[in-house]
What we know:
Elements: E1 3-9, H1 16-30, E2 34-40, H2 47-57, E3 61-65, H3 72-82, E4 87-90, H4 102-110, E5 115-119, H5 127-143, E6 152-159, H6 160-163
Parallel strand pairs: 1-2, 1-4, 2-3
Antiparallel strand pairs: 4-6, 5-6
Amino acid sequence: MDLSVIIPVRDEAENIPDLVGRLVKTFESMGVSYEVIFVTDFNRDNTFEVLRAQNRVNGRIKTLKLSTARGQHIAVVAGLDACGGNAAVLMDGDLQDYPEDIPKLYARMKEGFDIVYATKEQKNDSALRNLFSKTFVAVLNWFSDQKVAHNTGMFRIISGRTVA
C-alpha cells in the first residue's frame, strides 16, 4: 500500500463525509493505493457511527476506537502503529488541513525526504493561543538541534522507514 492517512478525531461527525470525499478524490487523482485510519475515543456526537457508515461504503476507511480518552498524541501513535502504508500522512480531522495538498507532500517525500511537514502562511488562532504556541515552539527550539517553525501543525508525511 502506498499511503496511510492517520486522523485523530473527536466530535467531528459533521466534517467526516466531506473529508472522506475529498481524500478519496485526491487519492484517485494520484493513482495510489491508500487507507484512511481515523482514531477516536470519547465523542459527544455520533462521530463513531458516521465512521462506521463510511467503512461500510469504502473498506479503506478504517476506525480505531480507543477505550479511554487519551488525547490527540496517543491517537496518532495508535494510528501509526496500525498503519500499513509505505508512508503515513498525519492530519487533523476538522478540515483545517487540505487533503488536496497531500500530493505536494508526497512529491517532496519522493525526492528523498523522510519527513515533510506543511506550514501555514497564516494561522487563524486567537492571540492567546498564538502566544502559547510561539512560546512552546521557542522553548522546544531552545532545547533541540532541529528547529521547528511556529507556523507548522500536525499535517505532514512520514516515510515508512521513519514510522517503523
